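Support reply, case 0932

Customer input (verbatim):
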Amino acid sequence: MKRIYVNEEWCLGCHLCEYNCAFANSGMKDMAFALKDKTIYPRIHVEGDDKITFAVSCRHCTDPICVKSCIAGAISKTDGVVKIDRSKCVGCLTCVLVCPYGALSPGEDGIMQKCELCLNNSCGAPACVTGCPNKAIVYEEREDEQ
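Our regenerated output:
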């Protein structure tokens, strides 16, 4: 299965992946209108310090602990993609506590969100990948998947 991988040695820490993600999941057609003067809620997050930066997103684990720990049954895995059913999420943050990668976060409405590989929007490929100017984020299949 294809997944998002980050080459941290190429990450500039520019946060464009976050903006492209927030826009792709906004449901709007104009990026400036969708994001200007608004707090963004991307499903990918840039972390790091002055020496190294990297993007953090869902790894779509083979045996995801977030699915097992969701008390509301809102998180499931279908065709290799871990997804959140927003209508079931109660915002308890249990998934945030158990995710070893820090890939889940509350959205604007307090309901949990995470990378779903842009399968629910019309990007074709994950927006963070296409929007990364330095190609630090890739969408590919690798043999060493967990």
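We compared this against your earlier run and they match. Two observations from our side: The two ends are 11 Å apart (CA to CA). The beta strands are 3-6, 45-48, 53-56, 75-78, 81-84, 105-106, 112-113, 137-140. Please reopen the case if you see a mismatch on your end.
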